[in-house]
């Protein structure tokens, strides 16, 4: 069997690895797999579209692959440079280099399977803005590399409030610029990368410990009764979404004063779009204190806010007198280069409307457009919705799109690893290898995005990962978890079950059993990942993120299991799901 992989980013590399090692796990002959990369180096976006001081927004615990773990001394959030080195080491460890062809654009290739792991043409998305040619310097974030590109004593306008836009604005305000503006279309949610660790009773002089770093948020959720062992009636109901929507908003308000983001006093997502089931979290949060600075005093002056902040409050970063002006989308630029902003009926427009602002530099952090000219016209792509686990179309499972789903909060590389495992299993073993992939299970993990949203393939990371594990027979039952724990020896008898229950859906959980079983998985779970779970601290780590959801959802699931025979008579199970 010959299989081609397009793209040498993390998704392409992990797919290649599972293809060339499949015969070690599955009943199949060795696969002849070749990866083609148009650039002259591996790493994808992390190597070719990154910039000075870039840092991953997902944690090393979640982002790194199941059987090749980060170094013990790596920080929780790897730099882009370090992550590219990790990918190089991954290629060396699994001897992928002989199967990789760099500087190779695919025009045709005879094969039995194709894994598309990159847009074959990824081009910057350039918005049409009247008069933008009157701005002295305009460039897309794809061409941004260093802070020196801002110049000295210049006014910088950044368009786009995604994670790249936030990074660029933060770097600009910490450069010798005159002024920095950040333009948005309909708000954003600036989420913390770590579990909030607020100061309790700061009114008495209590302060945070600068040496204590709480666990990353994407490694903090408990899977027990949230994704694992959830009764189907609860799993398919909006109750889970509603709980987390309430939890997110109430937690953000409690520790920072605003439900729209951590310490976010401006730029909130419009209420019609702001629901946990509909949004992608922005985890690049360094710019937020600078964006909120002009509005903080007025918002924090109310009696309710003063009372709240005297009881509990996250630290507020010192901006040293600098700030970022949030702005609406530009309507146009005049012949003199002055920007006219769209009236969005928000406070930022009122604040700026009488000013004459002529930016010296405009940075377009407006994303990318992906096309697939290698495929026949009309062939299903991620943007047209793949009907089998958002991975392949049922009409042709020999072609997979790996690494295109976008998690609301999580990371793409570990999901790409799970996708690669499922697709390779399907490719070599046929339908019998993965069972029936019931489409009724898909709405449970899909985000409830508006039909007009540019990205339609958003997923809940935890639900999606667990569903793929169930599809492959890699999710352990309660009894098996306990037996595997005892089999670890030493203190593994309690560590493995607790990591399974209290930890996020790390991919190593799904290498303990199933077709891709790996002997080192248990060591990873009772070692590195146990340390991660045990490190989770405070009220928000142990109670709200673990204890309370398990108590609430566990009780509901138990009740439903006990009543299931009666409920089946009264209200038979639907064939299509509503949620998660």
From TrEMBL:
TM region(s), chain numbering: 539-563
Keywords: FAD, Flavoprotein, Membrane, NADP, Oxidoreductase, Transmembrane, Transmembrane helix
Signal peptide extent: none
One Gene Ontology molecular-function label: N,N-dimethylaniline monooxygenase activity
Keyword Metal-binding in annotation: no
UniProt similarity note: Belongs to the FMO family.
Name of the protein in its database record: Dimethylaniline monooxygenase
